[in-house]
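ugh ok fine here u go
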Amino acid sequence: MSSLSTAKLTSAQYLMLGPDPPGVHLELAHGEIVVSPSPTPNHSDSIVNLIAILHAHIKTRNLGKLYLDTDTVFDDENTRRPDIAFIRRSRLKLVGKKALMGSPDLCVEVLSPSNESMDREDKFELYQMRGVLNYWIVDEESRTIEAYVLKRGKYSLAVHGKENQVVKLPPFLDLSLHLAQVWPQE
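structure:
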């Protein structure tokens, strides 16, 4: 009787693969390639809206840089692609030629039906374990946002916003985020 064996990849090997094939989104999770479909229009719309708001705030205050769907090496077996990553100015040395080489200060994931459990469980645990100080989970379908802050190695829910509320989310407590501006317009 033969058994099926699959080889695990390291993050260095994964980064040598090159661009994603058309219509799919690749990440490395626990040494294995994870394939998911490209974002839906509403998913993409929420990301673009949030990026526009955050970019203006971050740029005018020279706080650091935002990255969209960029390979981020968390360890030798995990290279993930947060929908949005923020690295504060003092830590920009983490920006490599092919990837972000370490944990961002903020990771943002916008849920979609194909990735909700991955974002709420697998990435939640990975980001927490690898010291991502702030993690936002955006649900454009239910129009909610959850902001988690890392305290003593565990995530704690800091803010839960919904619908048309105005919220202040860490690490940008001086930004009044009007959630109505994030959601896709019908």
